Amino acid sequence: DLRALIFDVDGTLAETEEAHRQAFNETFAAEGIDWHWSPDTYRELLRTTGGKERMRAHRDVVGFGPSDADIPELHKRKTARYGQIIDAGGVPLRPGVEELIRQARAAGIRLAIATTTNRPNVDRLVEATLGVPASEIFDVIAAGDEVAAKKPEPDVYLLALERLGLPPETALAFEDSLPGLASAKAAGLKVVLTPSAYTTGEDFTGADWLMPNLCCLSRLIGV
Ligand code: XBP
Ligand code: MG
Q: Do strands 140-143 and 190-193 pair parallel, antiparallel, or not at all (unpaired)?
């Protein structure tokens, strides 16, 4: 029987990647870095999960930009900017997410987050969309640099399961991307895949369910 739902954040709970892209670009401009990430460039860059890792990957491709030593501070500024964008509203939860959370809670199914983005971004998004601290909704939050190896490695899902104290066969993962799918599957989880703006059209063979959105999943979670 189903004991927990484990959610990815970016692309799954909300279409956040345009806000991330904007925050990166505004930070580059403010810091005098001659980079601008177009939507097409960003789609490629999303193959590298994690903002700091993504900036390093881009620098190594274009051959100029911030040093490894400068990237953590740059990423802090990007996170601050992203928080302001989220606080301003305009990035809603995806259809069905709020109802799914409500139904699961009512049925005593526990809720967790397993994300590559860093913790302040989770807190800001949940506060801005649901009006309460993320820790009030989610029993467990595994985020960002809490694990050494980000998605597609399984570490962040394994950490969420460890904190839940549950084996993978009692939980269900919700994802929107190929690295996320690979991560959850490698942790032994069944995966509900809902493509997002940046991942539509990819080949999600291997997902246990493929859904256009997270609406009307009460039967699937058995409530
Ligand atoms: C999405 C990511 C993140 C965000 C940026 O991860 O790869 O890197 O694009 O966030 P997920 P940070 O869908 O697993 O949440 O800059 O905080 O890394
Ligand atoms: Mg995602």
A: unpaired
pLDDT tens per residue across span 32-71: 999 999 999 999 999 999 999 999 999 999 999 999 999 9
**Residue type (1 letter), 42:** Y
Residues with CB under 6 A from ligand 1: 8-11, 17, 20, 49-51, 115-118, 121, 144, 151, 180
* Partners of residue 140 on adjacent β-strands: 112
Model-level pTM? Answer: 0.97
Residues facing residue 93 across a β-bridge: 14
Separation CA 168–CA 166 (nearest Å): 6
Residue 10 a catalytic site member: yes
* 8 classed as catalytic: yes
Query: Element (H or E) spanning 60, and its range?
Result: helix 51-62
Helices (H) and strands (E) in the chain, counts: 9, 6
Which residue, among 182, 187, 185, 134, has the nearest Cα to 157 in the 3D structure? 187
Is the Cβ–Cβ distance between 107 and 99 less than 8 Å?
no
Interface predicted TM-score of the whole assembly (ipTM), two decimals: 0.92
Cα separation, 174 vs 163, in Å, equals 18
Q: How far is the CA of 116 from the centre of ligand 1 (A)?
A: 5
Region class of 65: left (phi > 0), else alpha (psi between -120 and 50), else beta: left
Q: How many residues does the chain have?
A: 223
Distance (Å) from CA 97 to ligand 2 centroid: 14
